[in-house]
Description:
five-stranded antiparallel sheet, 15 helices, 13 strands, 3 domains, SH3 type barrels
Amino acid sequence: MFSDLKQWFGSGKPWVWLNAGAVSISIVMVAALLILIGIRGLGHFWAKPIMEADYLEPDGSISRLVGEIHEREVVPREQIQDPTLELPEGTDTVARLLVKTGNRDTVGLDFRWALEARLQQMRYPEKLMAIERYEWGNFYGYLKEVRQDGTLVASGDEAWQALQPLIERAGELRAQIKKIEQDDIGAINYQIEKLRLAERRLELDGVAAGSREHQAIAEERQVLQNRYQGYQARLRELYQQIGRDSLTGVVMDGQEVDMPLSVVVRAYRPNEMGLFDKIGFYIAKLWEFVSDDPREANTEGGIFPAIFGTVMMVILMSIFVTPFGVIAAVYLREYARQGPLTRVIRIAVNNLAGVPSIVYGVFGLGFFVYFLGGNIDQLFFPEALPAPTYGTGGLFWASLTLAILTLPVVIVATEEGLSRIPSSIREGSLALGATKAETLWRTVLPMSSPAMMTGLILAVARAAGEVAPLMLVGVVKLAPSLPLDSNAPFLHLDRKFMHLGFHIYDVGFQSPNVEAARPLVYATALLLVLVIVMLNLAAIAIRNHLREKYRALEQ
Length: 555
């Protein structure tokens, strides 16, 4: 029997099963993690019912509690600092609920822990409404009346039907205001700033103040100022229109709250919504999450700027790292003399792959931002000084920093791909009269392109999730302008940008409202994984196409 066991181990089957089991366990763990993130994150957008109950306070008084139940947990009796709580004999645990009460402008906190044993007459009235706002978080309560220019429009049951068209109208006006402020006035401010820099350049060049160049700048500035005044007049008109409508709501303590519709995103009654209504609401919220700008310290709204910044940075990083990595690998494999120096360089490249990412961030800050960026500002943008143009963190330096970080991965993968090309193919090309450079360009590099794409896939997977170096070289909590817009040169590499990884860190650990931000951490993490998967799938599709294309040559 011992010999059979020894033969079985010698056949290698135990190691095959061991590897298969390890891979299966890893797949199950990754799938479980993604399911957990998906449930916790995507469930945030579902319209939760609003509860109303009478709550027995420790002093014996009864108050009304209104809000969404977000969590239920059972804790030991000793953790509850409530000596007046009476429990059945032998009970050592207490159930408590995390209730999102909203109304931060009136009660101060979005969430409250409530003991389940003190809740009485829990109910879900259909007329309870939730209002999402641009400030002060959600509002929960009853709608009393709707007003227009201080005049009562509707009250009671009729107020809800009158409210929805007014909210849609306010949303349309808000979209017009946003377009004028960000697009039209933003373009004018950008052009005025360029004129100011041009005028400053003339001063540095010693051109007299009354010269023809100064006069041309003054005339162009006056034209822009006239356009600006026109947009300002239109904005004042829109603000007057959007500020005329308001509503009055009643919160859980009976207090009446007047609210202008200019701060309302949407109003809904989840307790009276059917399944299809909730599905439509869910789709609308999910679309808002991926297409809108953040609000309320990144705890509400969408994360489109972070998605855009992440994808743009990865694309630029790929453009920078691929040629440098391929050239370095080609030199080491095809041109460099194989000796001690080459071996030392390969060891150094492999060791660079293990350097902590924050070290690359410090290098990018010192070399790219302060040294290169500072000298570029001195040479090409002296009129903007002391305000830096490229002497501060931005999209360009962040992409270059991550390109340096992922360069060893591309070099190693490309060099391994070059080593797998049979020498007979090189010799055949040279025998037909091609030069070494032509052989590399037309034969060797195309055949090793799948390996290059493998290196790029690994580089994208690592770079897209990096946070530490980006905190030093360009990523910010909130970027008011995207790096890509309609103002020349259209792609602004000097601008700071948002990133999904940093957004997760900021919302999860720097948010002033931790409970409200927690679901967004899961949702953003899931979206970051999906973005990385989509980028990798695109690269894998290209790699597979190249592999099929050049497979016949390898045979």
